[in-house]
Amino acid sequence: MTDLTTGDLTTLSIAEAGRLMARGDLTSTALTQAFLARIETVDPALSSYVTVTADIALNAARQADMEMGGGLRRGPLHGIPVGLKDIYETAGVKTTGHSHLKIDYVPAIDAETVRRLKAGGAVILGKLGTHEFANGAMTPDQPFPPVRNPWNTAYQPGGSSSGSGAAVAAALCMGAMGSDTGGSIRNPAGFCAIAGIKPTYGLVSRCGIFPLSFSLDTAGPMAWTTEDCALMLDVLAGHDPNDQASARAPKVDYGASAQRPIKGMRIALARSWYEDSGAALSPDMAKAMEDAVRVMRDLGATVEDVTLPDIRDYHICGRVIITTEAHAIHRRDVIERPEKFGYTTRRRFQLGAFLSAEQYISALRFRRKLQQDTREAMRGYDLVMTPNQWGGPEIFEDPAPIFHFLGKPSLSMPFNVTGQPAASVCCGFGADGLPLAFQLAGRAFDEASVFAAGSAYERATPWRSHRPTL
């Protein structure tokens, strides 16, 4: 049993805290108070929260305690303190998108995911920093300071779910909601040494979440462990008639899938993406990747090199689609009120004006081919394994407005293009002490295999016991 007299409540996992509350050994109120106190002490150095809803959180925690004391158990998130990326609409609480354009916007109703979290008994601690409208970067002309990486505040936390990644890593919430259009859950998860999954496109409702790219946007959970992400997805997944892309998928016990053994699982290693693409992993990342492959084999999985389509094809296909759709969404504001945007966000949105309808349609058709070719390459395999990032996080500097087109191809973009579920799993730290991570991607709607493999790896390695020193 966790020693609650000396242990730090804020470093419990969701699974551990849930078991303690179910036994009556812990209250949600005590847990929530511990997080609120830690936010007040630690977050000034990180700026992960843009709004802390302390009174709302404490009321929800007391309600959870009353319900659990009366024998009502709403599920794995009952009484669990979580944070929301500030593009999730929250009734009566500002939802800013980290932008001057929405600085005073107070929604009347909750996003569907927020409604489900509350129905599951989760305690909402507040709203977390993001790249502006989940695009662009954090620049000095935006209304909130940039989120810092808790492993080293001189470094980026990754984006666009920056506050979500930093807050979970710094033990300022037990779980957080992010969004992923080209890697925006997995990038900060990897750079902050936490777990995060981009679910299958259509599995989790986007209703009430600020859009960036209708045909690629995905909402999903971020937490300290893969198992905790699975427990969050148990509450979040399900059809929503108000989201036109929402899928009707069979109900799955994701929490149970995180306990499955992976002996006999077949994993396709996308080595060509990071060895034959003209870009190179950092030496630390290359070693961590080989070590992770060895661990998976030791756990009984078969890991074999498989050739998938060129990583650059996915990258440019996804970038054309995102840039075109984002411009369509934000076009009027970019024309009429350009000064309201941060300069990087503005330029990235403006770039969409220079892409033609023909180029956009060609990218959509090319996406279909990439989906088919990826599915064919995965024939006979349960998962794809590849690095989550080229190396550790980058130091803070002025971001290049269109670097995302011209730099190294994104290792996360392929699974946005294909729509497959993909998770980031911490696989160690570089010589500089900064986090490294790999990805596991499954077939559409097979999050269960992703959770099984990610959780098995975490149990077999020491990385979940490493926390940043703040």
What do these coordinates show?
The protein has 470 residues and is an alpha/beta fold. The protein has one domain: Amidase signature (AS) domain (Amidase signature (AS) enzymes), CATH 3.90.1300.10. Helix content is 38%, strand content 13%. The chain has helices spanning 14-23, 28-42, 54-69, 112-119, 162-169, 186-191, 226-236, 254-257, 271-275, 283-298, 311-336, 343-351, 357-377, 403-406, 413-418, 447-460; strands at residues 49-52, 81-85, 123-128, 175-180, 195-198, 218-223, 266-269, 302-305, 383-387, 422-429, 435-442. Strands 1-3-2-4-6-5-10-11-9-7-8 form an eleven-stranded mixed beta sheet, with helices on both faces. Helix 11 (311-336) packs across helix 12. The longest helix has 26 residues, at 311-336. The two termini are 26 Å apart.
In short:
The chain is 38% helix and 13% strand. The protein is of the alpha/beta class and 470 residues long. The protein has an eleven-stranded mixed β-sheet, sandwiched between helices.
